[in-house]
Design a protein that fits this description.
Number of helices: 11
CATH topology of the largest domain: ECO RV Endonuclease, Chain A
Shape: elongated
Mean pLDDT: 90
Structural class: alpha+beta
CATH class of the largest domain: Alpha Beta
Order of helices and strands: HHHHEEEEEEHEHHEHHEHEH
Largest sheet: 5 strands, mixed
Strand order of the largest sheet: 1-2-4-5-7
CATH superfamily of the largest domain: DNA mismatch repair MutH/Restriction endonuclease, type II
Number of strands: 10
Distance between the termini: 56 Å
Strand content: 15-25%
Helix content: 25-40%
Low-confidence stretches: none
C-alpha cells in the first residue's frame, strides 16, 4: 500500500473509532447492527421466515442498504456523494454475504468500508480499502461493477476480522422442532410449542414476536390466557431474565438478559410449588 492511501485509511479509521468510542465499543456494537439488518430483511413477524436462506435474492441485496443506514446513524456520520463523508473523504459502504464485494464505478479511487457476514458461522469482518483500479478485477458485471482482486484483498485494513456476531436463533433449532412450533394455529399455541420444545435456552422478545406474529405478542406469553397456563400444567415454567435472575442463576441456567426468557421443567430439585411462585412478567 502506498503512503498516501495509508494516510487516508488512517484518518478514516481514526474518525470511525473516535465516533464509536474506541475499538472495544466498535467490536461490540457493530456486529449487533449486522444482526439487526439481517433480521429486518428476514422479517419473521410478517413473513414467518426464519433464516436468510428463505429470503429472495433481491432481498439479500437490501441487507447492504440496511447496514449502510445503521452504521451511518450509529457513527453519526453525514452522507456525502457516496454513502459517507469522513474528514472530507467520500466513502462508500459495500456489504457481502458471500466472499467478495462489488465496487461500482463511482467508488473507484475512493475509500470503501467493506463489510462481510457469514450466517452459518455467525462471524463478520469490517475493513477499509482505497478502491484503486489495480486492486480490482479486470472484468465487470452487467452493472459495470468490479470485484476486489486477490492482490486487492491484501490491501484491506481490517477494523475487525472474523468477529462473532449474535447467531440467528433458529440456526440452533432442529427442523422437526421448528415444524412443531410453526404449525400452531395461533400465537399462544405456537409459543407453547416454542417453550416446550426449547428448554433451557434463552429466547429473546424478538423471537417471541416472530413466533406469535400478533400485535400484542407478549400477551400471548402471560398467565391468565397466555402460554404460561398450558405450560404450567406440564410443569414447565417460563422465567424472565428481568425478574427471575436470581432463580435462573440458582438453577444453573444460561444467563438471560432483560429482554430474554427461558423455560425449565420441574424435577425433584425444582418443585411445582416453586414453579407456581416464579415467572412473573
Amino acid at each position: 500500500m502506498n503512503k498516501e492511501d495509508q494516510k487516508i485509511i488512517d484518518i478514516i479509521r481514526a474518525d470511525i473509532l473516535k465516533r464509536a468510542g474506541g475499538i472495544d465499543n466498535f467490536r461490540v456494537e457493530v456486529p449487533k447492527l449486522i444482526r439487526r439488518a439481517i433480521d429486518e430483511v428476514i422479517d419473521t413477524p410478517r413473513t414467518a421466515r426464519l433464516t436468510l436462506d428463505q429470503t429472495e435474492k433481491t432481498e439479500k441485496t437490501y441487507i447492504g442498504t440496511k447496514i449502510e443506514i445503521l452504521i451511518r446513524n450509529y457513527l453519526n456520520i453525514p452522507k456525502g456523494l457516496l454513502d459517507l463523508k469522513i474528514e472530507g473523504y467520500e466513502v462508500d459502504i459495500k456489504n457481502t454475504i458471500g466472499v467478495n464485494w462489488m465496487i461500482p464505478r463511482e467508488a473507484i479511487n475512493n475509500a470503501c468500508i467493506l463489510v462481510s457476514s457469514d450466517e452459518k458461522k455467525a462471524i463478520c469482518s469490517i475493513g477499509v480499502i482505497i478502491a484503486r483500479p489495480e486492486y480490482l478485477t479486470s472484468g465487470a458485471n452487467r452493472d459495470e461493477k468490479k470485484s476486489i482482486s486477490a492482490e486487492g484483498k491484501k490491501q484491506i485494513s481490517w477494523l475487525i476480522k472474523d468477529q462473532p456476531y449474535p447467531k440467528n436463533f433458529w440456526e440452533n433449532v432442529s427442523p422437526s422442532v421448528v415444524s412443531k412450533i410453526m404449525k400452531g394455529r395461533g400465537g399462544t399455541e405456537r409459543l407453547v410449542a416454542l417453550f416446550r420444545g426449547i428448554i433451557g435456552m434463552p429466547i429473546s422478545r424478538q423471537v417471541i414476536e416472530g413466533v406469535a406474529r400478533q400485535k400484542d405478542y407478549m400477551k400471548r406469553l402471560r398467565k391468565n390466557g397466555g402460554a404460561r397456563d398450558p405450560l404450567l400444567k406440564e410443569n414447565i415454567i417460563v422465567l424472565a431474565g428481568k425478574y427471575d435472575r436470581a432463580l435462573i442463576k440458582e438453577l444453573g441456567l444460561p444467563h438471560c438478559g432483560d429482554d430474554e426468557f427461558i423455560s425449565v421443567k420441574a424435577d425433584t430439585e425444582f418443585s411445582v410449588k416453586t414453579i407456581q411462585k416464579a415467572g412473573q412478567i
